[in-house]
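Deliverable D4.2, example record:
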Amino acid sequence: MSRILVTGSTDGLGRAAADALLSSGHEVVVHARNEQRAAALDELTDRGADLVVGDFADRDAVRRIAAELNAARPLDAVIHNAGVWSGPAVMPVNIVAPYLLTALLRAPRRLVYLSSSSHFGGRPLLTGIDWRGRSAGSYSDSKLFVTTLAAAVARLRPDVLSNAVDPGWVPTRMGGPNAPDDLELGHRTQEWLATGDDPEALTSGGYWYHRHLRRPHRAVHDEEFQDALLEALAQETGEAVA
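Output generated by the structure prediction step:
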């Protein structure tokens, strides 16, 4: 069985993925933004899940969580699920935090990044990006960046399976109660990529929707853009992904 970190697992897709993985017998590390939110995870921790707490809008908190996890039993996989829809935390949470965890965490051989069809509306431009969240960020841009990060890691780390997943517009707190897609299908693909052993699950660099490969924004596999994004984030955070 695998040991898997699921970020942003207090509700929605992250909670559903963590619950399903625990039920399948995997070791799961759940994550909450703060102690108040962590109370929502009592049912999962009572079933054996480990817990890390920290606000992904705070880089120091991300670094602390990475150090805590590196000091524990190694992770086999990370599902980078945590995300916000709007406001100043968009860039810090949606791209800077998963970038930092990717740079700092040792050992995971499977990385799953939550993308969105909104990434097609993102702009492959890096000038003027407010990585620190002093002002509201573009959700579409952040999802283009994290989808590109997944592809870049697949290229640079051939021993790691790195993929992006579009879960669909599902009825979560972020998606709203009238979202038309299937919540169950929305989390199954990331679980499959994190733990599956059939040939398709053992591939890397894909952009997936309900276990089907789709063609992402053309910038995602542009190596020049990948390298520029990684350089910008390395300069911003002081940590390199290689």
